[in-house]
Amino acid sequence: MPGQPGPEPIRLRTLILLRWVAITGQFAAVCGALLIGAEFPLVAVLAVIALALVLNLGLTLRQSRRISAREAAWHLGFDLAQVATLLALTGGLSNPFALLLLVPVTIAATALPVRYLLGLGAGTFVMVTLAGLLAQPLSFKAGGVIQLSEPLLLGHWLAIVIGALFFGAFARRVAAEINATTEALFAARMALEREQKLQHLGGVVAAAAHELGTPLATIKLVSTELADELSEALPQRADLAEDVALLRQSADRCRDIMRSMGSSGRDDLLIRSAPLAEVLAEAAAPHKGRGPEIVIDAAPSMPAIRRDAAIIHGLRNLVQNAVDFAAQQVTIKAGIDQDELWLRISDDGPGYATTLLPRIGSPFLTTRPRSEDGGGYEGMGLGLFIAKTLLEGSGARLGFANGANGGARVTVTWQLDAIRADDRGALGLNPEISR
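Structure for histidine kinase, as requested:
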């Protein structure tokens, strides 16, 4: 769908952990080979392992940042080339650990788009071919305790056992991360469906209030006339006068109820567009009076935009997050730059933690200090995730940062053609009520 964000394929932390396990296994395999008398270029093998070790140490310093599918594919490609090089230096395809060449492409099949899977599949074919053609012979010292056939048999057995454990554990880890993202998307869909049901209810209530207005007015008029006539014709029947008074009171109560319910008519589904300031006010309305002042800075000349449930709910979540952590004020500012419409929601709270910024929008545990007490607030991060998902689904781009003078700042940007609506078009027919 246009504007729909792609899920994070694999967390960088998972790739780093995977490589640590691989490095540990490679060192263990080298030590085991030396113990059984294998002869191979030890310095070159250790240099290849050290290269992966240095890369992983560098990545560990920034393991909390998000990565794209392209970057994840490059990391898996490096692991593939590193394993193929080690195999070429230690016997090629005759090495029982040649099975480990399947790890990168297996993970790619689990979590990456098809184009990256095809690229890694082609890379696996090339690496396996080169490992077979350029393999250095693997020999054993004569007179060793373990003969050639026995270490190969033992090595194949270990490779199968380790490979099964390795594939199972990490496939499970990657699948769990994908399931977490799926569950968060399901929560977003539920929130949107709830908003749409409320809008349907608002339309029905507005129509009912309009249609019942005339009958209620007639009932009140007739009951008033009956009360006057009964007071003249049957002044001794106080019970009838009380019944008529009760009828009038019930009519007045129905009028008041329908009037209050009819105020939700602005949520009628027929209202498909509204001025930008009105949409912002509607999104911020549930959070007014919660403490911090909400200031909306949108010029009257700003264009009308699509009044969509997803947009309103997404903006409402961003405003709620700002109000939760603001000290005194939340500012919603709007503007137009050439062919783009932008909104900036900022607060005067403590802002986002530096380590949190790269992961904002992910449905995982987050921590941000509250402004009033400085204590940590922990949650699943679903509020910002849902807002990001809904707004990006409407074609928006979101940016999260800290302001120059402190506080958090969220910028939402649309192409004007994607968000602007024609507020001069006909609304269409009102829904009919069957009598």
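The longest helix spans residues 149-233.
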